[in-house]
Amino acid sequence: MPGRTLAVAAVCLGGLLALRLWVVEPITVSSTSMEPTVPAGSIVFLNKAGHQLAGVRPGQLVVFTGPDDGEMPNQAVLLKRVVAAEGQTVAIRDGVLYVDGAEAREPYVNRRTIDGVYFGTVTVPPGQLFVLGDNRESSVDSRDFGPIPAAAIHGTVLGQ
Questions:
Q1: Position 109 confidence tier, pLDDT thresholds 50, 70, 90
Q2: Where residue 140 sits, what CATH number does that domain have?
Q3: What is the reported pTM?
């Protein structure tokens, strides 16, 4: 009987490890760039299931490997919001985000802190996504390093 218990425990442990490696992983947020949506120190759960990543769409929060551009630590892992997908245009005029010429509804962005900010217009290239932090005043994002390859995404945040 003890051998069977050990085997069951090993299978359960293996299953939990596989779940964490390939399906869901907890991530601790270290930056303020997604506040107020995700405060620094929060733990979010990352959906790493490959079939889910193919359908990443604007509005979703994603975790990805950032570019090594000298601004951030080598290949930093970042959490940002997708605001536009391939083929869409992005512009920021007086702190307001426009996607394909239409004002984006963003109740989580404090426009007073970014009043007077202008960016774009840029078109997102094929296979890429444009990402922004919700705390635009302190976020290093696609305004700084450009659109990101969809292949750089590790997963989407669950329960957003």
A1: confident
A2: 2.10.109.10
A3: 0.78
